[in-house]
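Reviewers of the previous submission asked for a worked example of the structure-prediction workflow described in the proposal, so we include one complete record here. The input consisted solely of the amino acid sequence. No template or homolog information was supplied to the procedure at any stage.
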Amino acid sequence: MPDPRPDLTDPPPWATATAERGLELLVHGVGGTTPEKMLADPRTIRVTGDDTAAVYRRAEDVPESAGGAGPALDELPGEGPVREAYVWCNLTSGNGTRALWLLLLPFMVVNLAHWMRPSVERPGRSVRFYGLLVRLAALTLTVLLVAAACEVALDLVAWQCAGAPACAGRHTWLTFVSDGGWWSPPGRRVALAALAPTLLTALLWYLSHRTWSAYESHRPLTTTADPAADEGALARPGFWYGRRLGARLRAAHTAAGLLTVAAAVTLPATRFDHRPGGPALLDVLGVLLGAGILAWACVAVAVVCRRGRSERRLDQALDRHLLRALPLGALALLLLAVTYACWSRPVWQSAGRLPGDPAFGAIMLAQGILVVALAVVARRLHRRLPDPRAAMRGLGGPAVALLACALGGVASGGVAQRVADWLDGTHATITGPPVTLTWQASAIPPVLAVLLVLIAVLARRTARLARAERRRVRAEHPGEPEDPHRTRRIAHVRAMATLTDRAPLILAVGSVATLIAGAGALTGALATGLAPAHAAQDAGAPVRIAAEICQTLGSWLIGVGFLLFVTWGRRAYKDASARRTIGILWDVGTFWPRAAHPFAPPCYAERAVPDLTWRTATWTERTGGRLVLSGHSQGSVLVAAAAWQLPPAVRQRVALLTYGSPLERLYGRWFPAHFGPAALAALHRDICCWRNLHRRTDPIGGPVRLPAGHGTEVDHEPLPDPRAYGRTPEHPLPAPILGHSDYQEDPVFIRERDRLLARLHPDLPAPRPEPGPK
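From that input alone, the workflow returned the following structure tokens.
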């Protein structure tokens, strides 16, 4: 298959004309922007790339002979470097289908947990065990999603509503399965309803395969670095090439989804056939089919447990037989299950609900055990190489994995409860969803209450910090007339910007509350078999009232959340601005490759990082010129990742200019194994020069905080924000508080960029000299 990415290996001839002036490659941050805004010029020309991601220049910097509006090749005007803008926002907020990625939110979150492990000197068994536990937790989320679809389609619709004349009479579209025809027997109704979760699994497979073909399956730039040298994970040639692991996990998760449907179809028929006096042949067939499903499920789990990610080399091998046999075998078992369920059983009637409580309880218990085990491993890894800046002392990954499981459970319970209410109304004609899901919904109000208390405490601390900041603001502007309102405003923005550093505390408290509430919900569901309000009927009045409030409020919260979710998704599908807002979430969450969950939204960095690497490497090698990689916000993470992927000789010809950068403040704390102090210090050592700009009012960006003894300081002192406290001849109007935006408008930006260019010696020999006499 040809590579659809733009060819960045062969810059146009006019690119060499900019070598003497140098090149500044701008990369925007979250939310995206336009090339016109990045280059401060309404006339821009795409010099390479496509509609998804591309590099642009001002028209006057592109010679007329190359399709631009500028002069001859050797007469490019202007001072300073030629500027290019790399626009990648369409990778996360392009067309309307991106809104559907909201459905994949739990998968994206659990995939983040894989990359949040603590830093270690030498990866060993504990690191591999950490990755294994995250992959297993991700597998349970796939099973949970498909099980929730089975609960809605097979249990609520086909088993309960279609089997109750009062409920089926309210929905005319169920007439053909409840009028005594061929589809009326319970087994055939269930078999027909299995089409819905099967199609859902097929859709997930298709989306994953489609994005895999567009991202993971294309080779990045092949470097000449020594594969035995460990320069950090992000510098390894196979880091942005998850082709083999992605394909293997996709096959295993697809098989797990199909096997979940097969088990949901087989189990009610097997229970009926296994009754005293039941047909012996069908009983034996049911046992054999169940054993086959269990055995194939073990194979799928074994494939997930097997190591598959190879970062030290480009792993071209694909397990083609496994990729075909695993999902096809599961599909064959599903077809056998459908045939078995459709067998004629004249006396079979549907009553109550399908046996879903044990299944959802088992999934919930497995997730709890995996999260606790993950926390033990993460804590052990953190103790080997303690990092005081690591979020939650190395427990960020387990906390995020727990959050993913909670999101999956709440979404499953919410959908089941809403569908049950829609089918049944207020007539009480069906039993409803499993009590485990009702207990999960009832656990939401206590968790929210704990978080509200924490938010109130943080609000009080922030107000106290804002009062302390007022004194600092006044001290920074001696001799100027004081404006109390202006002082309070600046101090408030600074205090609010510090809330980003409180995120580990919020996640820690929320995780503990969620774990306790989830354990209580599972215990209550398994011990009583009743919904919380019914289980507390014989308890004291306070307990009974609390249970009723939690159950009612939890159901309402899930309902409101579900409606908001659907409304937001529909709006994002039609409205580009809303889609761009959702894209901010994907900008942060889909930076990392799909190493744990193959159905997560695709990793845009597997397109963006190779693009930047190819552009940087080919331009410097062919022209021998100077290049500054200039990244704002999330763009600073992309340029750092691209710099890691450059050949060592090219790194020494490249400078980094980062501003509003979350490299240490967010990525260094939450992903210490890849952006911790050792990794950032190695990046600073490998590239020619680096400068980082930040403000105290910025809630996202911050200093890089390199360890002492690593050469020239990277961090500039905090930029003043606002640039002027009061009105001045230069600022006759009140200067705005910029926070995270408009770093390029500060004069310090131009000065630091020019200093970086000056430190890049243009007379150094190119890494690949042109042939000719010396």
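Residues 22-62+77-91+603-726+747-760 form a domain with the Rossmann fold fold (CATH 3.40.50). We consider this example representative of the routine output the project will generate in years two and three.
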